[in-house]
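Session log. Operator J.P. requested a structure for one protein chain; no other inputs attached. Running the standard single-chain path with C-alpha cell output.
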Amino acid sequence: MSDDDNNNLPATQPEALRPWTRGGPTPNPAGRGKGTPNAFSKAFLKSVSAKWKEHGDAVLEEVRHSQPGLWLRVCASLIPKEVLVVTHSTTPAAQLSEQELQAILVEDISAIERLRAALLPLIDRVADHDQQLADEMHRVLADG
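Structure written below.
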C-alpha cells in the first residue's frame, strides 16, 4: 500500500487501524522494551545454539587450522575493548590522599593478578591442542 493509498482511507476508520507510514507517528510509541527479543531473534538464537552444540567444536578446530588469521580475529573480538574500573569511593581522585590512591591501586592490581591466575590453567588446556598459540598467550600475559 502506498502513502497515497493511506491518504484515501475513509475518514471514519480509526487512526489506530490505519496503516503506518514512514515518517508518521509510530503505532506503538512505547516500542518494544530494550533488550526484549522478538520472535525472529529468539528462533535465530535457538537455531544457532543447536548448531553450535552439534558442530561448534569441530568448526572451531577446522577454522583454527585452516584460517588462523580469522581464528585470532574471532578470539580478539571476544576480548573487551575497555575495562570499566569501579571504585567504592565517590570522591574525585584529585581529592584522595596518596594512601587512599595506593589502596585502590593495590586492590585493582590484586584483581588483575587473580584474573591472570585464573587464565593460566586455561592456557595450559590450549597447549594440549596448540603449543604455539599457548606460548603466544603466555607472552601476552607476561607483557600485560
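Operator note: The first helix runs from residue 3 to 7.
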